[in-house]
Description:
The structure is a single chain. This protein has helices at residues 5-20, 67-83, 101-111, and strands at residues 26-31, 36-42, 47-53, 90-92. The protein is an alpha+beta fold. It has one domain (5-111): 2-Layer Sandwich (Nucleotidyltransferase, domain 5), CATH 3.30.420.100. A hairpin with a 4-residue loop joins strand 1 (26-31) and strand 2 (36-42).
Amino acid sequence: MTKNLFDRRTKRTRFRLVKNAAGRPRLSVFRSGRHIYAQIIDDKAGATLAVASTNEKESKAAKSWNVAAAAAVGKKIAERAIAKGVKQVVFDRGGYIYHGRVKALADAAREGGLEF
C-alpha cells in the first residue's frame, strides 16, 4: 500500500521523536487552511496536558491563518504548559515542513519558556 508524502514524513518524524524523546512530552502541531492547533501530549500516560489554537473563543482574531496568529498560539501553549509544570518537550511538526506558521509557533513557544 503506497502512502502519500505527507504520511511518510509524519511517520519518519514520529519515529525519530520516539527514539530521542527520553520520556519528555511532545508538542504536536496540526495546521489546517484556516487555523493552527498545538497540544502537549504525554505518550506514556496517553493524556493531553495542554491545548491551544486559533479557534478558541478568547483568541478569535480577524485573520487566524497568518504567522502572527501562529506565534500567539505558540506563546499561549508555552504559558499553559509551564502552568502545568512542563518545561521540556519534544517538537512534533508532523508531516509539515518547518517554515512559515509552524516555525513561528515553535519560535514563540521557545520564547515563552519551553525548551526543545
